[in-house]
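name: query_chain
kind: protein
chains: 1
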Amino acid sequence: MIALIMAGGSGTRFWPASRASEPKQFLQIAGKRSMLQLTVDRLLPLMPISDIYIVTAASQVPLVTEHLPALTPENIIIEPFGMNTAPCIALSVEYLKQRYSEDTTMIVLPADHVIRDTAAFADSLQKADLAAQKGGLITFGIVPDYPATGYGYIEAGPMQEDGIFSVNRFKEKPDRATAQSFLEQGNFFWNSGMFCWSISSISSAFTELQPELHELCIAISQRWNQVGTTADISDLYRQMPRLPIDIGIMEKAQSRYVIPVDLGWSDVGSWKALADISPRDEQGNYSNGEYLALEARGNFIYSKKFTALIGVSDLCVVETPDAILVCPKDLSEDVKRVVDYLKNNHEELL
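structure:
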């Protein structure tokens, strides 16, 4: 088994802490190590670091090297620039085909998720490995504990073998009533964005379902063979269709399966999501630094300065040396509107 960690995102939903110079996956927002380091830490009991690969944008390679000094340069797969998960994974598969046999099982993980139950995580990967060896494309479905409207869902079909189900369909983010019905039906799971397959199975899926993308990968491979894997492939890569792997492959594939898992998982997709998994005091407040809360409840503080809150509730307060964000927790997703404003007015703050 080998692992591919996707670590090229910009993490704009975590502004102002996440910046172009240090995106979310390189921040210590879920512990004393960066999210990328924690993702690698979860894998090391299962495989050597020589079988762990990071795919990232060229601009982020120095950060990957800084955070993972034990990783060799050959284990960093470089996108000329960020695209979407289908091109990212297709490029990585083409790279890995040159280093491994095609029956090798490949785990694909985002770099910026939180997983509390590492033992259950390891068990789920072993189960997925067995299914991958039979030619399946496997995704991991998180057992939902509330009717979330911020996640896509996977509808499971009949069980194929112990703990592994066929996939009926993928469902985009639903409204609350639909999400509640999914929860009541019991066979819908949050789409985690984690996958498992053999190199040959995913390669065949790209060939069949995304022929244009596949042809571009062949051209990239030929250039690598001629010039080396440091060759400039940007002219070819920018022609890739900007598709997520779910739409480009998983929604169209035949042999697709879901493994329901309960891992203490969060994609930490917003400041509110981080607040939800952070330890809190008796008034429901969290701070990563010194603070005083007077008649203040349910607040989340991310600041290196002493912070005093008086008579406010359910706020996110995020402070960096050059910016401050204050918003209700439930509106923390709207930080993207701030980012859009800054793109046109203050790019130096991105």
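note: The CA atoms of residues 95 and 278 lie 38 Å apart.
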